[in-house]
């Protein structure tokens, strides 16, 4: 039987890191086995579900490149079908109407809490015949005896006593089906063979298996993946910084870096850290996902991100970078070619935001100089080297690296000084102090006009401020 997995987010917020990892694991498991991957939007909670959240989830999936073979399927479009199944369960005796008042349920709960028992419904309405026209909910008649056991692909064998489970509500008094019922109907009718989800759902699984048996379906295989913790050991939350996938994009993280990072949260292969998407598909194995929670480590994500910034095709990085240049108000279109700037600068940045910031000087004049560097490089003694090198640059036969290199070398030679005496003030004059590559390349990329303008500005600056 071919494998079919699904990612089933509730659209009550953005696509967060935990959800993205669940989606990635489900996607990888399907792709690895040549199976299918379904996106199902569990939007039955009408009060908390929003269209903005649906869009954020779709945007996140598409940014990560986790394409789905079916969907998005919206549960709100399937209420009719859920109600049919609920009616069948009523007819077959697997479900019953319950009209217990809120007060009764409250008293029951308080008593159980006092006796230190697990709060659960006591089956009061199991044997009653209740008029369908009076207000009621519908409960599933959970088996009273026996054990529900399953082999979780991550956790191993798990067993729950039915006496621990109660008769859960499958249709609310307003007629809306509840989560456990809708999931069961969908997993069954969509032919889901492998359910991979967060382990916060582990207690729902025995209930869902009982429901599946009641509707005559074979339960899928399950894999419950552990949660993600922040680097302080607490459950990952906004407090730990970005948790929304799209926030990572805005912060200059590459999708391949985030995917590579996410796959390693709970899964490993030998001692490897770097996995392309193809390698993940080939090597990923849901059975070797760790049981223990994994901790988020921002440093590692940044390290991976730098790896991909350095190793991906510069044209692709340039395409992604241009939006961050735009955020700085820079149009990188005219000159120099952004891909060349990427090659010149990529060793020096961990994110695209950083890369944009340290590359701004290629495109626009800066305000002021790095203070520490200016103290060192902009002394009165820098005036002569700057004037001289400026003239050589003006005279250069072409604005090419070799000629620019020669202009600097000749200045150094004529003045009989060390390279730094020319190189330091010149670099500061044209970059303002931003990290930059070899000086001749830096000059070439900035362009003749801007270089000369900036040297003039530096000369004027030294004349008026004079760091002695
Ligand atoms: N909609 C559920 C959630 O977002 C997931 C349900 C499932 O995977 O079974 O937590």
Bound molecules: glutamic acid
How many DSSP-defined strands? 12
Mean pLDDT: 95
Give unreliable regions as ranges: none
Number of DSSP helical runs: 19
Report the helical percentage. Answer: 40-55%
Strand content: 5-15%
* Distance between the first and last residues' Cα: 80 Å
- Summing up helix and strand content along with how strands pair, one would put the structural category as mainly alpha
Q: What is the overall shape?
A: elongated
* CATH hierarchy class name of one domain: Mainly Alpha
**Name of the CATH architecture of one domain:** Orthogonal Bundle
Give the biggest beta sheet. Answer: 3 strands, parallel
How would you describe the overall organization of this protein?
Among the domains are: about 315-360; about 370-465, Arc Repressor Mutant, subunit A. It is mainly alpha-helical and about 475 residues long. The mean pLDDT is about 95. It has helices at about 15-30, 50-65, 80-90, 100-115, 180-190, 205-215, 245-250, 255-265, 275-285, 300-310, 315-325, 340-345, 350-360, 370-375, 385-395, 400-415, 420-430, 440-445, 450-465; strands at about 5, 35-40, 70-75, 95-100, 135-140, 145-150, 155-160, 170, 195-200, 220-225, 230, 295. The structure holds glutamic acid (GLU). Glutamic acid binds near residues 8, 9, 10, 42 and 201.
